[in-house]
Amino acid sequence: MASAPLSLAYSIADQSFDRTKSLGILNLSMQLAEALAARTEINRLELFSNSSLGEWHRRFAGRQVHCFDRAHATRAGRMFWDQRQVYGEAAARHVQWLLLPKGFASFCRTPRVKLATYVHDVIGDWYRRRYPRAGSQIEAWYFERSLVATVKQSAVVFTNSDFTRQELLAFSKRRALRPPKVVVAGIGFDAVEPRADAIRERIIVLASPFRHKRTDLAAQFMARWQHTTRFCGPVHWVGRWPSGLSRPTEPAWQYHERLDEPAYRTLLAETRVLVYFSEYEGFGMPTVEAVLHGACPVFSAIPSTEEVMRGAGAPFDNASYESFADAMSRALDMPAGELARLRTCLVSRHNWADVADRVIGAMMSS
Q1: Could you tell me the residue ranges of all domains in the chain?
Q2: Which CATH code, of 3.30.70.20, 3.40.50.970, 3.30.360.10, 3.40.50.2000, is assigned to 202-349?
């Protein structure tokens, strides 16, 4: 007998391009909503959004879109939305499920419908153990309380990788919490046809103000590598620079604090190598995106990126400049045919149809 159709509230109201700390989470939240909206198993989808995403709303013809602008306008508005209002809005619409794609539940209320959450990482707990003095202690407390609520309240938790699943289960054990049902949903990517006429001379290096992204190490290794190899092509740094770290004045280095998705993709389409340093990730989306756009990723060999890439690209050891230099050589010498083969494999492995299957299947069986 066929399963009954689902009714679902999906909240992205507290996210926007101007205010998000993670463009990756914003993009994933939007794309997952689109993938679910296309499925006939969901007979009613109530999208909680805000007017800053108005152009995107056009993709939801026939689905209910509700704008809650206070949910993203201020920090107090986001906290009120997260802690109280979103649960009330879901209950008022008499849906079966509420899906929170940012993964943080309310520790002030309990849901009156089934709760599904998407947990991207457990980095707050990692920071508490690795860099206990970094960042706002109040913010760390808030998100830890919210993650505990996620574990306690969720009928099902989705993660982007098995690494994040294991991290969440370990977090639950350390807090003596009963572990929830955890399903690795993954992340999907749309197939991209790289420009055949693109002149790929530039290198992109991703920067970030967050300590785990190791922009300091990226600047040190890149400067040493460029002086050693005398690489004369342009190097574009994308992302905000950490406070207290001076930007090197290398002649070919250009800095972009923030690029919207179309501008970033345009830059990536003419890039030969993307460099991505990190100590901790739940998934590592830029490594896959680089291959899809015809660039070879050079990236830190940490558990999540190794799981996602499965040997593709050019990983390196953060503790070794020699490993980084070797990875750069391999990336610059990688034939276009090899990148095309990797692109086919990654699109097959990470696609939205499979992600939606896993999400819908888990909700129908919960």
Answers
A1: 6-188+351-364, 202-349
A2: 3.40.50.2000
Report the DSSP pairing between strands 235-238 and 253-256: parallel
Asked which of 84-93, 262-271, 278-287 is least confident by mean pLDDT, the reply is 262-271
Write the pLDDT tens digit of every residue in 8-60.
999 999 999 887 777 889 999 999 999 999 999 999 999 999 999 999 999 99
Can you tell me the distance from the alpha carbon of 13 to that of 172, in angstroms, rounded to the nearest whole number?
28
d(CA 364, CA 351): 20
What CATH architecture does domain 6-188+351-364 belong to?
A: 3-Layer(aba) Sandwich (3.40)
pLDDT digits (tens, 9 = 90+) for 198-244: 678 899 999 999 999 999 999 999 999 999 999 989 999 999 999 99
Contacts of 276 (CB under 8 A, 6+ apart): 206, 284, 286, 287, 290, 297, 298, 299, 300, 305
The Cα 295–Cα 270 span in angstroms is 8
